[in-house]
Design goal:
The chain is an alpha/beta fold and about 220 residues long. About 35% of the residues lie in helices and about 20% in strands. α8 links the parallel β7 and β8.
Amino acid sequence: MFEKRTATLQAETEPLELDLDRLAVINIDMQNAFVSQGGMFDLLGVDIGGSRQVIQPIKNIMTAARAQKIKVVHIAHRLNPDLVELGPVSIYNCNRFVQSWRDKPEWRDRMILRGTWGAEIIEELQPLPDEIVVEKPRYSAFAGTNLDEILRTFDIRYLIFTGVATNVCVESSIRYAYHLEYFPVLVADASAAAPPERHESSIANIKQCFGRVTTTEEVLKVMGY
């Protein structure tokens, strides 16, 4: 009989008792298009400074998780080069980023088109060969993917979320996780949005309705680092 590995994660609005064998780290969209200089966001004038600052905290969490045999799941927002996922008429077509995919063919390698540099996870946070990578066509990591099936296959119940952007893909994923009856936790200093007030707004939303919010320091404590 295996001994259950539990730890109390200090978080807002209240602590969470974790079963470490049912815990996964979900790293959202840390891709060149969103985080790297010369990527799509950078070319469009989006401030990527905050996204660059969370690379090391995420790396620290991933290192600790790997040492404790806690699953690390990488999420990447990727589209086919022909943008078939968007269709001829889509609510996404009014998005200025979608417009740039269509109107700036010279940027195609810098975007999130499958097989390009922009769509790849940044070098600093590369998945290990045995780690799970889930491609998503929408903001939420669960929408149009098999992420829920994968997590349930491994009996995962507790989810630590890191990555970008807090107010779009990270919050969308946390909301979806809540509705699927997981226990989602946002790591505030391992996620980012531009401008920073959008990050803070998401933190408030998550604490009030959808999960808990903690820090890298507290996550490392429960992982024994």
